[in-house]
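in:
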């Protein structure tokens, strides 16, 4: 369970582990925005009646508008599950997003650098974790981690959420959600020219459990 001011996002297995990382981060930020006290919720409901006057159920539409400003992804981790239909284990990726100032429990692991699990939060800068997945050319990883970190940083610095939930009474709600990073946040994140720190995970001890993954710290002054 996430502490107050935080929310947890999830991504199921994907062909590209990087897509799972981005999906989990996006889901966590969306959950944080929709659960914020400043989110605007508009609900419309109507009774469906057939031509013969018989009640056919209730149609409900819920629109949620929210915003993220200066949040941060404080943790990511992966769970693996055996699947008898697949030759390899499924990977479920989770991320936790917190509003600035929200207290998240410190995580410790002697096998990884401290900043991997506890991003700097000293009030003077905003930081995000970038990931460069295993590649045939390891020299490409720093740039990949920088690009990924910029995306994560921009999303946390400023994003607007629009979600529509439609329930037709068929025991399954239809959900459409769009999280858009603001232009100002993208511009600020794009100004980061290099990683503040980097760590090559040779043994897969990092939060994603993938060998030869490069983790990079991307920061910007507040």
């Amino acid at each position: 369970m996430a502490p107050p001011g935080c929310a947890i996002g999830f991504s199921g297995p994907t062909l590209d582990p990087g897509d799972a990382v981005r999906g989990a981060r996006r889901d966590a930020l969306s959950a944080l925005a929709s659960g914020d006290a400043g989110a605007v919720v508009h609900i419309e409901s109507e009774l469906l009646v057939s031509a013969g006057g018989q009640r056919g159920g209730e149609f409900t539409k819920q629109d949620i508008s929210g915003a993220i400003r200066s949040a941060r992804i404080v943790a990511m981790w992966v769970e693996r599950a055996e699947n008898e239909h697949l030759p390899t284990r499924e990977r479920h990726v989770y991320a936790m997003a917190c509003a600035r100032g929200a207290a998240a429990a410190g995580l410790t692991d002697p096998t990884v650098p401290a900043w991997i699990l506890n991003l700097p939060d000293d009030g003077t800068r905003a930081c995000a974790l970038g990931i460069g997945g295993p590649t045939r050319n390891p020299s490409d990883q720093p740039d990949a981690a920088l690009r990924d970190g910029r995306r994560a940083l921009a999303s946390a610095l400023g994003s607007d959420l629009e979600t529509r939930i439609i329930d037709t009474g068929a025991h399954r709600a239809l959900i459409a959600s769009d999280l858009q990073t603001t232009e100002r946040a993208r511009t600020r994140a794009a100004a980061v020219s290099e990683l503040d720190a980097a760590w090559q995970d040779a043994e897969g001890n990092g939060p994603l459990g993938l060998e030869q993954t490069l983790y990079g710290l991307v920061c910007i002054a507040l």
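note: The first strand starts at residue 6 and ends at 11.
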